[in-house]
Design goal:
Elements: H1 2-17, E1 34-39, H2 60-63, E2 65-69, E3 76-77, E4 82-84, E5 94-96, E6 101-102, E7 107-111, H3 112-115, E8 124-130, E9 136-143, E10 153-155, E11 161-163, E12 189-190, E13 200-208, E14 216-225, E15 228-234, E16 248-257, E17 259-261, H4 284-288, H5 291-305, H6 315-327, E18 331-334, E19 351-352, E20 363-366, H7 377-385, E21 390-395, H8 401-412, E22 420-424, H9 430-439, E23 442-445, H10 447-454, H11 460-466, E24 469-472, H12 484-499, H13 505-510, H14 514-519, E25 537-541, H15 547-553, E26 559-564, E27 567-571, H16 573-579, E28 584-587, E29 592-595, H17 609-621, H18 637-645, H19 647-650, H20 657-662, E30 708-709, E31 718-720, E32 726-727, E33 729-730, H21 735-740, E34 750-760, E35 768-769, E36 773-774, E37 782-786, E38 800-810, H22 832-860
Parallel strand pairs: 13-16, 17-18, 18-19, 20-21, 21-22, 22-23, 23-24, 30-32
Antiparallel strand pairs: 1-2, 1-10, 2-7, 3-6, 4-5, 4-8, 5-12, 8-9, 10-11, 13-14, 14-15, 16-25, 25-26, 26-27, 27-29, 28-29, 31-37, 33-34, 34-37, 34-38, 35-36
Helix pairs in contact: 1-22, 6-17, 9-11
């Protein structure tokens, strides 16, 4: 113990002789708008949380906030400024609403319910305020896993940025005052909305409305405006006035409602079909306990989705791949998505049944076993109040009595309700199906998964005879087809070869459209093609006279177009180019498709499909030698090999999906030889806004926040690039022009820089006139117009767009002669005496150690 004291004394002596280190905190500005307070971890309602913005919702999704303060003596217009978190990551930036004026001494609060900006608790974050040109005005930061419930970060009474542990949130007022309540100034901030359809177009083709079996329009039109079907009409009828002048696309195909996947586990769907090589099991609890299952499926999934050192943290990428895999088969909505990272996928690509659709969001899912002590009060209350939209329950998944008995528990607990959607139900009999039909419950049939795991499937004939509403869905990738389009083929084979054709083709198609919509309580929103319904649409190549058989037999190359809420998300390259200005081409086996998986208005949605696949495949390779799941069924040789060798899937049967459905010939353009799309030529539209030549090409992607450069001392317009950005010089625009563009008044001692960039968005034969003529430009070419805004940058054709930027810099003043520096006062530490003292002190310490050590030895004798 005494020996430990010696080095401690040495350190203390050394520290006393060394200069002291000083740390300083970030200080609040005094002459510019700054971020005064942020709340990272607002408490939720269950733990006494406060509704800080008064919108009726309590918790992080609504009440995270940042507060801005204007300490200056003049009002400042921050309209068009930007709020963002960490640069090149995190949530999308949002633009503060125009005419947001912050008076002297005033505070304004921006809540997450408006900004969409998530403050990251786990990794920490940097919150930034940028002006209209994208120049950072202020930023604050906090460390990961540091914030506490309802404890804000902000400037304390000494002007330093700290965690205000002794205070409470004060949105809308000074940090050292009592909170004044929800009646404070709240700001609006708008993120890019490229994930929401805005605009209009008409799709021409054969229309299968699904309103009834005979409601088919051979030569029809669908007008879509802002994501909603505005009108549906035949070529034989007058064109609606709303369709006049709207871009029309002749699809040369058949248009259906988008397919609805009523049963999946999408966050597993990068894992391919499980080649278990057994004779199957009696119920789901048996195979879930197998080590082989854990190695092939659950441990791989955990590695891909887990963060930190445990995994790759790729859950958002996995969900995007899963949704695109569904879209590739015409699916516009999918059940069973991840409950984590929902902000990264719930508003893009396919709809997620359990998340935010049509205001019908009171949907519950239970995957675990229902037990006798399960009360399910939320289900009972939702049923009695009429607020429950759907309850997806995995029930009776197996072929033994124990599986069937789960239904008895359900009934015994008073949970057999009309909103019930039984998933699988393979062990149920006509007795149980009649009880389900009596209350209006639904059944989701997943024959492929049932056959692969148990060698048998639900008694679907008994369910149909009882009058149960039947939806058809593929289950997940480890034991199912890739999407409902594929599952239709297994169901069709079963109907033809086992059931004796008890279902018509129309009834089969109902199982993936109207029946699924009815099960999820979406029947008034989607599932049919009619005015007022969501524009969730599927366009297929037409190769069969019966449109319902056409859908059942269709495969991946036949998918012409998929739209979700009017937004084109997947399809043939030509039709996607006509509808989307930013596409990515995906190569299939002898065919190509296009998609757009990047969105400026969605968190973590900047990766391309190619990068998503690369990252997922690399992560999986760290855990398994089994390759990643394929996007398309057509060309997935391993998939068909596993099905053909499976003892449970075949089980004395000969199910040859490849030979019966997928073995077709494609032409050089990747379409069926006997289809109507192949040979029909490229898409032609009636849109003449691109110079009259009818040519439409993908438009270049423009930044949300533009890079700027300058001043360089020259104001002559010149060629530039999007990547280089906006050239700023001392602004020559008039006061009226600046005011019209909401550019703030130039502060004293500042100089205003401005500039514009003109970008060619579509082919044009016209020239840009900006201080000279710029002609023969290609798409994505740019012309820089320094010192001017868009309105006074010149004249240019409709195919050219303009963006501008501005910034304030300090005015240069005539420098005064610098005085000769006065000699600094010398201290004893600056001279040789200091080092002599150091040497002497060390000698004394070493000698002391020797003496102490000698004494200790003497005492120890």
């Amino acid at each position: 113990m005494r020996r430990a004291v010696v080095p401690a004394i040495l350190l203390m002596l050394m520290a006393s002789l060394w200069p002291l280190a000083v740390t300083s905190a970030q200080s609040a500005p005094t002459d510019a708008v700054y971020i005064n307070e942020i709340l990272v971890s607002p408490n939720n309602e269950n733990y006494g949380g406060t509704d800080w913005n008064g919108d009726g919702s309590i918790g992080i999704y609504s009440d995270q906030y940042l507060e801005l303060h204007n300490p200056a003596s003049e009002a400042i217009d921050i309209g068009g400024w930007w709020l963002d978190d960490i640069a090149d990551g995190g949530s999308p930036a949002c633009s503060i609403g125009w005419d947001t004026v912050l008076e002297p001494g005033a505070y304004v609060v921006f809540y997450r319910s408006w900004t969409g900006i998530e403050f990251d608790y786990w990794d920490g974050d940097t919150i930034r305020l940028l002006d209209g040109s994208g120049t950072e005005v202020d930023s604050v930061s906090y460390e990961g896993e540091d914030s506490d419930w309802d404890i804000p970060y902000g400037y304390d009474s000494t002007g330093n940025w700290v965690k205000l542990s002794d205070g409470s949130p004060t949105p809308g007022g000074a940090n050292d005052q009592e909170w004044g309540g929800t009646n404070h100034l709240q700001g609006n901030c708008y993120a890019p909305r490229d994930h929401i359809h805005s605009g209009q177009y008409v799709l021409k083709g054969e229309i299968v409305t699904m309103a009834s079996e005979n409601a088919v329009i051979p030569n029809g039109n669908v007008l879509v405006i802002d994501g909603i079907i505005e009108a549906v009409w035949s070529d034989a009828d007058p064109e609606p006035q709303a369709a006049e002048g709207v871009m029309t696309i002749d699809t040369s195909g058949t248009i259906y409602p988008g397919l609805i996947d009523a049963h999946n586990h999408a966050h597993y769907n990068y894992i391919p079909l499980w080649d278990h090589g057994t004779n199957g099991w009696q119920n789901r609890y048996q195979w879930q306990a197998e080590e082989a299952y854990k190695d092939a499926v659950s441990r791989v999934k955990s590695h891909v989705t887990s963060g930190g050192s445990a995994g790759c943290d790729l859950n958002p990428e996995g969900m995007k791949f899963a949704e695109l895999r569904s879209l590739a088969g015409g699916t516009t909505a999918i059940q069973g998505s991840s409950t984590s990272d929902t902000d990264t996928f719930d508003s893009i690509l396919a709809r997620n049944v359990e998340l935010y659709n049509f205001g019908r969001d009171y949907v519950w899912t239970k995957v675990s076993q229902i037990t006798s002590d399960y009360e399910g009060n939320h289900i009972k209350e939702g049923n009695s109040s009429g607020s429950l939209d759907g309850w997806f329950l995995h029930l009776a998944e197996g072929v033994d009595e124990a599986s069937r008995a789960e239904f008895d528990v359900l009934v015994g607990n008073d949970l057999l309700v009309g909103e019930l959607i039984v998933i699988h139900g393979t062990a149920l009999t006509s007795v149980e199906f009649e009880q389900m039909a009596a209350v209006g419950a639904s059944l989701v049939w997943s024959p492929t998964s049932n056959l692969l795991l148990y060698g048998d499937t639900a008694d679907i004939a008994a369910a149909a005879a009882a009058g149960v509403n039947i939806a058809l869905a593929p289950d997940w990738a480890p034991s199912g087809m890739k999407n409902p389009l594929g599952e239709l083929k297994v169901a069709d084979w079963w109907d033809s070869n086992v059931l004796g054709d008890i279902f018509t083709d129309y009834e089969m198609v109902q199982m993936v459209t109207t029946n699924s919509a009815r099960a999820t309580n979406w029947q008034d929103e989607t599932g049919i093609i009619a005015a007022g319904m969501a524009a969730d649409l599927l366009v297929l190549d037409r190769f069969h006279d019966d449109p319902y058989r056409n859908l059942i037999n269709a495969i991946d190359p036949d998918v012409r177009l998929v739209t979700v809420g009017g937004l084109p998300v997947f399809g043939d390259v030509d039709i996607m180019q006509a509808l989307d200005d930013e596409i990515e081409v995906i190569q299939g086996d002898g065919f190509q498709k296009a998609t757009d998986v990047t969105y400026d208005g969605v968190e973590m949605a900047s990766k391309s499909y190619a990068q998503i696949v690369t990252d997922l495949a690399a992560c999986m390779a760290e855990k398994t030698t089994t390759p990643m799941e394929e996007l398309f069924t057509y060309g997935d040789d391993r998939f068909f090999d596993v099905l053909n060798r499976s003892a449970t899937f075949q089980d004395g049967r000969t199910i040859d999906l490849w030979g019966d459905y997928y073995d077709i010939e494609l032409d050089d353009s990747g379409h069926r030889l006997d289809g109507t799309v192949g040979g029909s030529g490229p898409i032609q539209t009636n849109n003449s806004s691109n110079g009259g030549n009818g040519e439409t090409v993908p438009e270049p992607e423009l930044p949300v926040l533009w890079p700027t450069y300058g001043p360089r001392g020259g104001t002559i317009p010149h060629l530039t690039t999007i990547e280089e950005g906006i050239h700023l010089e001392e602004c020559e625009s008039t006061e009226a022009t600046l005011s019209g563009a909401n550019v703030p008044t130039t502060p004293a001692s500042k100089v205003l820089l401005c500039g514009a960039i003109l970008i060619v968005m579509q082919p044009t034969a016209d020239c840009i006139e900006a201080g000279g003529s710029f002609c023969d430009l290609e798409v994505a070419d740019g012309v820089a117009v320094p010192a001017h805004l868009c309105s006074d940058s010149g004249t240019y054709p409709d195919e050219v767009t303009c963006r501008y930027g501005y910034a304030f810099i300090d005015a240069e003043e005539e420098p005064e002669p610098e005085p000769e520096p006065e000699p600094e006062e010398e201290t004893w530490m600056d001279g040789a005496l200091y080092w002599v003292a150091i040497f002497v002190a060390l000698a004394v310490i070493v000698g002391s150690i020797g003496i102490i050590n000698s004494n200790l030895r003497e005492r120890a004798k």
